[in-house]
Write a structure and sequence with these properties.
- The protein is α+β, with helices and mostly antiparallel strands.
- The protein has one domain: Aminopeptidase.
- The chain has a seven-stranded mixed beta sheet with strand order 1-2-3-4-5-7-6.
- α1 crosses α3.
């Protein structure tokens, strides 16, 4: 029998102290900051505290970050998140990061399917949403495969760089059950 957060290829699991250096590498990759709303590097101390806090449940933290792990190797290949969790309105945002070395093999699609099933069947959410820069074709394709539908565009939503006055539009996609 396969558990709720796993299939034959991947599992979604809680953060562990052993994930510290992976998170440090992923969170401090400045090439990803423009889509993660990160403005500065994270310290090891801050990430240790974040991992320690992750033992609390989604109702208290209003977010849940899970490690995407390959089966049966147990190798961590990315993270997937529920954030801005709103228990009253039964919705949450979704974020996903897959290590570039593991992109393109369908793992993100599988992780999204597992998280979606968990959110709707276990957490009893009504909807999930995502904000995607309009030029991010791979993310738009991923969430379209996951059943998300376009809901609108937020104009000039993301600042391109701190030193410029350029902005990017963001596509809002939703999956409603």
């Amino acid at each position: 029998m396969i558990a709720l957060l796993e299939n034959d290829h991947i599992r979604l699991r809680a953060l562990e102290p052993e994930d510290l250096m992976l998170l440090y590498r992923w969170e401090n990759n400045s090439e990803l900051w423009s889509v993660s709303n990160t403005l500065a590097p994270y310290s090891l101390y801050a990430l240790k505290e974040y991992i320690a806090e992750s033992r609390k449940d989604i109702y208290e933290l209003k977010q849940l970050r899970l490690i995407i792990e390959e089966c049966p190797e147990g190798r961590a290949i990315g993270t997937i998140d529920l954030f801005d969790f709103d228990a009253h309105n039964k919705r949450a945002g979704v974020g996903i990061l897959l290590d570039p070395a593991f992109q393109g093999g369908g793992r993100a699609t599988e992780a999204l399917a597992l998280l979606t099933e968990y959110a709707f069947s276990f957490l009893k959410l009504h909807q999930l949403y995502v904000h995607i820069p309009t030029d991010n074709e791979s993310s738009k394709a991923l969430f379209t495969r996951g059943g998300f539908l376009p809901a609108g565009v937020l104009v000039d939503w993301l600042s391109v760089a701190a030193t410029s006055n350029a902005y990017r539009d963001v596509l809002v996609m939703q999956l409603i059950r």
